[in-house]
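As noted in the main text, all predictions were made from sequence alone. Below is one such record, for LRRC3 protein.
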Amino acid sequence: QAFFCLLLLCIPWGSSCPPSCQCTERAGAKAVLCSSQHLQEIPRDIPRDVVLLKLDANSITRIPSNAFRHLPRLQEIDLSRNAIEHIDRAAFRGVAAGLRSLDLSGNRIRSIPKEALLALGAKLRLANNPWHCGCALQELLGEARLDPGSVRDITCHTAPRHEYVGKPLLQALDSGANFCSVPRRSTDVAMLLTMFGWFAMLAAYVICYVRHNRERSRGHREHPRALPGTRGRAE
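Prediction:
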């Protein structure tokens, strides 16, 4: 990839180019290089036929829906070393089929909607982010096409259990952690508590009903006994 970028830098690109970016071309492969330009958002005037887009080392905080949809030939995106915190579900809509490489390492990402990445065939780099190790990240690790060299650097910044905080996600999973079981356990506990509450209410109702019937029966038994004495006094 570094050699490919070096080749692209050799030939200037004569067509329109975003401000603060350098556009180059080599053998028909066009690149837009916007590294370290203090950008706070993805440029909107990127040429449609770009193949490589480098936006690393900027101050981008969010990838909105359809951010690259107008770039049908895009194959590589480098968004490493930004300040990205939010990625919309449809952030990569329109480029999923052709994208080969997506670098999101070194940002501020805690979680990503899995719908945003699972449709991609690109090799993903997600290391060095403050990840929350939950079910979504575990499923992403199992289903997405991650760069093997960066998987070990996906570390749990937060987790449902304190013992996993600061550990690589792979190490936590190898030790038997299953973050996808936590919500189910919570749901099971809630259902058990609800059922116990209903049974307690039903038991209380039955007890009150039985006591009430006993008191009524006792009253009926005592009332006839009083009648003979009443008749004797009348005579």
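DSSP finds six helices and ten strands in the chain. The longest strand covers residues 22-26. These features were considered when defining construct boundaries for the mutagenesis experiments described in Section 2.9.
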